[in-house]
Design a protein that fits this description.
- Helix content is 52%, strand content 17%.
- It contains 14 helices and ten strands.
- It has helices at 62-65, 108-113, 115-118, 181-193, 204-208, 228-251, 257-274, 283-314, 325-348, 351-365, 377-400, 405-428, 432-467, 473-508, and strands at 14-18, 20-24, 42-57, 69-74, 80-84, 92-97, 124-139, 145-158, 164-175, 197-198.
- A ten-stranded antiparallel sheet has the order 1-6-5-4-3-7-8-9-2-10.
- Strand 4 (69-74) and strand 5 form a beta hairpin.
Length: 509
């Protein structure tokens, strides 16, 4: 469970998810009558106001190149600083911050959220949009605003030695109640029928800067359709984008963000290892991805263990919870988690991290492809998947040959790691059934491993409690529960292994 804890000096930031449609319209366009749109009981407006927004970017427009906008806006109901990140799965995240006195300096917390894209380059004003906005609201039977239609007459200025000025008009329909996208479609249909057309630009800023040349996002590497290179590089690009998408969320300590960023880094590292016959010579990059995973690991472990202990304690009868155990396993761990987040933010603001991002983008833009990269993907990459699974069976055979139980347990952890790598490889190739089978092995062994780690942590916390003169009874109860869960997973594994290996034999032949 993420904490949404901000460092000292940060101002609370509100997050909104925008679901909207934008339209280009002629100067003489008339907003159609929206009365009677099914789902809306009342149409209110239009009401007009003036908006003046100053946009910030690096000198070479690194934010604009990725569809990110950062602005300071005066006027209207939402005056303040706004950071809009690119759309993901049809929605766009907007992060807002109250107005500051300075109109030329970006608040440090917002500047931090775009560090993965600016890589430390300075942010400065690049353009201004002066908008006369006329707003019409659609409300439901209960008076709640469901949707907003904004009719904007825009004057845009690009700053520079010779400022460039443009004027245009556009209409935007935005859902306020995000659970009614059918209403957005109906309103959009009426707007189009009256002569509106879908906007060519994703935002006013992108339209204004169309004549300027944003810093180019690395173009897709040239690969042959259906080739092994196309599949591998495409997968790597997807994971690089996933890692970058999680960066602002990690900085804000949003729920599951650290986990998703860590998974992206692990998938990248696994793919670089597995597909070295297609994309060679990436060992230094693998090492840097391992470093990033380790930097994120402390926070992730604390998130998981805090949620795990909270669930266990919540399931105990009151009479079994003795002393301040809930505080030690809750607030104390939460404080450690907050400190770990601070350390992560430092790492994500450093040159080593920026260098890793630069290297990843350079790799997917111009990968050092081998001769095998040009071969058909199906045959070439299925062999890679089979090789990764053979690593799992090899690790299992090695572990089972060890007589000492403790040493065997350590060796079984290697089986889990090999299964995870086999899973990620199968996922990259779209081999969903193989990925699912490898995940069964990984998850079953993971339950055992997590239980062992949890027992060790509980024993340390119990010792701390005893030294403080507290009753350690409840820690013993929790250790017993964790040991039982770990033992059940260990006992279940032979059955899982037998079923999995039989299924994988049928998949790989």
């Amino acid at each position: 469970m993420a904490m949404n804890t901000l460092p000292t000096g940060w101002v609370l930031i509100v997050v909104a998810i925008e679901i909207e449609d934008k339209f280009d319209v002629p100067v003489d366009y008339e907003i159609p009558d929206l009365t009677g749109v099914r789902g809306a009981a009342e149409v209110v407006g239009p009401r007009s106001h003036q908006l003046v927004a100053i946009y910030f970017d690096t000198a070479d427009l690194r934010l604009a190149a990725r569809g990110i906008t950062l602005r300071r806006r005066r006027g209207g109901a939402d005056a303040g600083w706004h950071l809009k990140l690119p759309k993901a799965k049809g929605v766009r995240q907007e992060i807002t911050h109250p107005l500051t006195k300075s109109a030329k300096i970006v608040p440090p917390d917002l500047a931090q959220l775009v560090l993965a894209f600016t890589r430390g380059a300075a942010l400065a004003p690049i353009a201004e949009l002066d908008t006369r906005r006329s707003v019409t609201l659609l409300r439901g039977p209960d008076g709640r605003t469901l949707l907003e239609v904004a009719d904007d007459r825009v004057k845009g200025t690009v700053f520079g030695a010779e400022p460039h000025v443009e004027r245009w008009r556009e209409v935007e329909a935005e859902l306020i109640a995000a659970d009614d996208d059918a209403l957005l479609r109906k309103v959009g249909k009426r707007l189009r029928k009256a002569g509106a057309v879908p906007a060519d630009s994703a935002s006013k800023l992108s339209r204004l800067l169309n004549g300027a040349a944003p810093a180019p996002v690395p173009a897709p590497a040239p690969t042959s359709p259906g080739s092994a290179g196309e599949v591998v590089v495409g997968y790597l690009r997807t994971q690089v984008n996933a890692l970058l998408a999680q960066d602002p969320r990690v900085r804000r300590a949003e729920e599951d963000a650290v986990h998703q960023m860590r998974v992206a880094s692990r998938r990248l590292r696994s793919a670089l290892k597995a597909f070295k016959s297609v994309v060679p010579d990436t060992r230094p990059l693998q090492d840097e991805l391992k470093w990033l995973g380790n930097e994120l690991g402390e926070v992730r472990d604390l998130e998981v263990i805090r949620a795990r202990f909270g669930k266990l304690l919540g399931g105990l009868p009151d009479e079994l919870v003795v002393g301040p155990v809930a505080h030690r396993l809750g607030s104390d761990l939460e404080a450690k988690e907050s400190q770990a987040y601070d350390r992560v933010r430092v790492s994500l603001g450093g040159e080593r991290y920026f260098g890793l991002l630069n290297s990843l983008e350079a790799l997917v833009a111009a990968p050092p492809l081998t001769e095998r990269a040009g071969r058909p993907a199906a045959k070439t990459l299925t062999a890679v998947a089979a090789k990764q699974w053979h690593r799992v069976t090899g690790a299992y055979d090695t572990a089972q040959a060890i007589e000492d139980q403790d040493e065997r347990d350590i060796a079984m952890h290697e089986v889990r790691k090999a299964a995870k790598r086999a899973r990620y490889t199968a996922e990259a190739l779209g081999m969903t059934e193989l990925a699912r089978r490898a995940e069964d092995v990984q998850e079953t062994l993971g339950v055992h491993q997590d239980g062992v780690i949890a027992q060790e942590l509980l024993e340390r916390e119990a010792e701390t409690a005893r030294r403080a003169g507290e009753d350690a009874f409840t820690y013993g109860v929790l250790v017993g529960l964790e040991r039982a869960a770990a033992d059940r997973a260990y006992a279940r594994f032979p059955k899982v292994w037998k079923k999995t290996t039989a299924a994988v034999h049928g998949i790989l032949g």
